[in-house]
Amino acid sequence: MIATGYSATGVILPLVSRDHYDGEFVLVAATTGYTLGALGFAVVVARWRPRSPGWASLFGLGLYGFAPLAMMLEAPPAAVVLAYVLAGVGIELFNVLWFTAIQREVEPRLLARVSSVDFLFSYGLAPVGLALITPAVAAGGVSTTLAVCAVVCFLAPALAACAPGARRYSRRSVDR
Amino acid sequence: MVAPVAEHPTPPPDQGRPLRRDPAFLRLWCGATLSGLATWALPFLLGFAVVDGTLGVGQLGVVLAARTVGFLAAVPVGGVLADRHSRRATVLWSGLAATAATPLVVVGLGWSTTVTAIAAAVVGCGQGACRPAYQALTAEVVVEERRQRANAAMSLAVRGTTLAAPGLTAMLAVLLDTSALILGTALMWLGAALLPPAGASAPRPERRRGGPPPSWVSSSTACGRRGGTRGSWPGSPRSRR
User: Does position B222 have pLDDT exceeding 80, yes or no?
Assistant: First the structure.
């Protein structure tokens, strides 16, 4: 999800902004919209306690798929920006509930180690995705690459939601 | 015989005051915000160095790659150190390492890319080691019921930084040169190292009688072994402060 979604934003968004939208406006508006979406939703998620935090969080993660999808469909600029606002909202929802669940579910003596694995995969996969996305575009074209990115962004959280305990990000719900 | 288990710091009971008025959380939030700001600022300011000609584009790539390598190498090490020793001490030493290395980034600019790259790698190490330690320290400082709000507040700071910092930095660049701005990030790292509250005392190293200490990999998968209810880990005192 990180390797595909973030790479689509990092590499293909500037490309699409230049080639399909005649300049940097979509690039600037989309990245700003992403941050504003995340910023605004941080205030909401500070108070909101969803009944199924795991599913809510993974649903938020899946919202990122709208970003590559909007670019693939060559949607109007406003729709691309809106997709990025949604992506920002979703990532914030995911991050806050995920971090909170890790702090709750992981045994305290192992918490920093487990967090390090989490960070290592998040940050470690990003450069891999960035390195691979340009050859992917060269081989399959922009639209195909964006389609693959969108499918992965939608599918990966959906599959994760099927895991035992995913609904509430809780092992206790599995034990019951 | 049951193996001795490390003691685990736990946050003090909820005193009923809002999170924004909790001095311990405010110190943690300020430290985390400063570390996030410094993390964001270095590549941005190195971009300024490219614009003013003190760093080539290729050299920028080398320096940023060195920083990323340092970060990725230090994340697991920081995680292990923070679990085996004190999370607070890990934050302190990783922040101090980044503080000390940042001036060397400036020293190397326009003189030695190797010096700048090595210094950037050390800054990356500090950045990487403090991330998991901050994550675990949050669980020591904030009670479980308020952690979602605390995490949202920390994230809010990161997003606010991303949004406001480029413009503010550009304004500062009118008054200060690139070297001075990079040195400013050393002060941010110093704040990130010193501001967070002291966690409870360090857990004793976890050693099984007659056996080696648990490895990073094996213990990272052990999170599934917990039983019982929240806050009642075997051997874990309810409150240590």
Answer: no
